[in-house]
Design goal:
With 377 residues, the chain is of the alpha+beta class. Strands 1, 3, 5, 6, 8, 10 and 11 form a seven-stranded mixed beta sheet that branches. Strands 14, 15, 17, 18 and 19 form a five-stranded antiparallel beta sheet that branches. Strand 14 and strand 15 form a beta hairpin. The N and C termini lie far apart (138 Å).
């Protein structure tokens, strides 16, 4: 069972850099596509320095890995165990050489982690493992397989007596280092199978919502709705492997004009201690000046039998502003127009009254002057 192959490379004779490519050979890509749906891990390629011997035109190598048929099952896609602290399990991996030449592979274990794309990845051999990678050991560090043949590689997982209860994920890996003169690199191809281990004891599955915030973007139309963006971090603060169902809503003051975000893609299964950042758009939000964003997580726990159960929901809220600036500007302009009209009207009335008062005053003064002068003879 072969999974997609990637490369990390360091340039030789040019500026060093790191990149990832899917596929090493056409044959590998074909087999990888056929097996991509299987929950086996990945074939990783890691850059090295320098270049080795030239590779023959038909020298592409391909191999597969699968779980051994034994008391744990005949057709497993990965390894899954529940072990007491201080306990031990023994199992095996079958490696098959699909190439036309003998194949020597390194065998080792490594801890798993979730990448930024939500995929399970494994630590490289030079990185220190503290879980599966430290507890699982193959019966041999390398294996030589003849063309068209397969070999069974036993391994043992020994759990320390002081191991913390909870879930651990890693993998059993096969590795082949090869030179690629065309790109001036050494490539380390890795192919492995996932190992999930639950150490017995009190299971404390728990997710937390952290750094919740809401931002609003309105439109130029003073009477239109806008879009809110709710961001937060999902943090696995318990000791169990967890995913979650999510819901997000935004409402105005006193819970008015509540708007739901709709369907939200679930986060990947997070290992204990891992975090996952979320960015959820919420459309058609009324600009109610004050906004309240609510995020709800329903943790999903998978037991040893593969059944998933829902746990008690976790909820968090945050407040933000949705000020309808265009509408406020329109209101200000209208108020200014009303106040200006009122002031101008009062001034016009005052001027008319002043003119009328002056006319009356002049008439009275003229009448008094005429009276003082008396009748004309």
């Amino acid at each position: 069972m072969l999974t997609p192959v990637t490369r990390r490379k360091t340039g030789v004779g040019r500026k060093a850099g790191v990149s990832r490519k899917t596929g090493v050979t056409a044959l590998v890509r074909t087999v990888a596509r056929r097996a991509a749906a299987l929950p086996l891990l990945m074939a990783l390629a890691i850059a090295g320095l320098g270049a080795g011997p030239a590779q023959a035109a038909d020298g592409d190598v391909t191999w597969t890995v699968r779980t051994a048929a034994n008391g744990y099952g005949d057709d497993r896609s990965s390894y899954s165990y529940t072990v007491n602290p201080g306990g031990q399990v023994k199992d095996a991996m079958v490696v098959a050489n699909r190439s036309k030449s003998p194949l020597e592979l390194t065998v080792y274990a490594a801890d798993g982690f979730t990448t930024d794309t939500g995929q399970l990845d494994l630590l490289t051999k030079n990185k220190k493992s503290v879980g599966i990678g430290a507890w699982a050991h193959a019966a041999r560090d390398s294996v030589v397989i003849k063309p068209g043949k397969s070999a069974e590689v036993p391994f043992t997982v020994s759990v320390p007596g002081n191991a913390t209860p909870g879930d651990y994920v890693g993998g059993i890996l096969t590795s082949l280092k090869q030179a690629d003169e065309t790109e001036g690199i050494n490539v380390d191809r890795r192919l492995g199978i996932r190992v999930k281990l639950r150490v017995s004891g009190e299971l404390k599955p728990k997710l937390a919502i952290e750094d919740l915030r809401v931002d609003y973007a309105g439109t130029a139309n003073p009477f239109a709705t806008g879009d809110a963006t709710v961001t937060y971090t999902i943090h696995n603060t318990g000791n169990a492997l967890l995913s979650a169902r999510q819901s997000v809503s935004v409402s105005g003051p006193f819970g008015w004009a509540r708007t739901e975000a709709g369907d939200i893609a679930p986060p990947p299964e997070l290992l204990p201690g891992e975090s996952w950042k979320m960015k959820v758009p919420v459309h058609d939000v009324a600009p109610g000046v004050s906004l309240t964003a609510t995020a709800t997580l329903t943790p999903l726990l998978t037991d040893a039998s593969g059944s998933t159960s829902s746990l008690k929901p976790v909820e968090a809220t945050a407040h933000g502003w949705a000020v309808p600036w265009t509408l406020l500007l329109l209101i200000v302009v209208l108020l200014a127009a009303v106040i200006g009209t009122f002031v101008l009207t009062r001034r016009a009335r005052a001027r008319r009254k002043a003119r009328e008062d002056a006319r009356v005053q002049n008439a009275v003064e003229q009448a008094l002057r005429d009276k003082e002068q008396g009748p004309q003879s």
